[in-house]
């Protein structure tokens, strides 16, 4: 069974992880959003109680 031989698969695994760590993670961490999110409301609105007519 070729899956039990770790020779070629281990090097492919290490190479793919090195590409992921060296290239992809820094590119995603350097991404900046064009608009910073701001809260819509800074205070809670005052609500009145509803008096039912019945």
UniProtKB/TrEMBL annotation:
Task: Tell me the classification of the organism that encodes this protein.
Answer: Eukaryota, Metazoa, Chordata, Craniata, Vertebrata
**Chain ranges passing through the membrane:** 6-25
Kindly list the biological process annotations in GO that this record carries.
proton motive force-driven ATP synthesis
Task: Please explain the role this protein plays, according to its UniProt record.
Answer: Subunit 8, of the mitochondrial membrane ATP synthase complex (F(1)F(0) ATP synthase or Complex V) that produces ATP from ADP in the presence of a proton gradient across the membrane which is generated by electron transport complexes of the respiratory chain. ATP synthase complex consist of a soluble F(1) head domain - the catalytic core - and a membrane F(1) domain - the membrane proton channel. These two domains are linked by a central stalk rotating inside the F(1) region and a stationary peripheral stalk.
**What InterPro entries does this protein map onto?**
ATP8_metazoa, ATPase_protein_8
Topology relative to the membrane: Single-pass membrane protein
- GO MF annotations, alphabetized: proton transmembrane transporter activity
Query: Which protein is depicted?
Result: ATP synthase complex subunit 8
A Pfam family hit? ATP-synt_8
Question: Mind listing the UniProt keywords for this protein, alphabetically?
Answer: ATP synthesis, CF(0), Hydrogen ion transport, Ion transport, Membrane, Mitochondrion, Transmembrane, Transmembrane helix, Transport
Q: Which PANTHER family match?
A: ATP SYNTHASE PROTEIN 8
Entry's localization field: Mitochondrion membrane
UniProt source species: Brachygobius doriae
């Amino acid at each position: 069974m070729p899956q039990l031989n770790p020779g070629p698969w281990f090097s492919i695994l290490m190479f793919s992880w090195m590409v992921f760590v060296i290239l992809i993670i820094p590119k995603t961490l350097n991404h900046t959003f064009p608009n910073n999110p701001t809260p819509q409301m800074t205070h809670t609105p005052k609500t009145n109680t509803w008096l039912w007519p019945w």
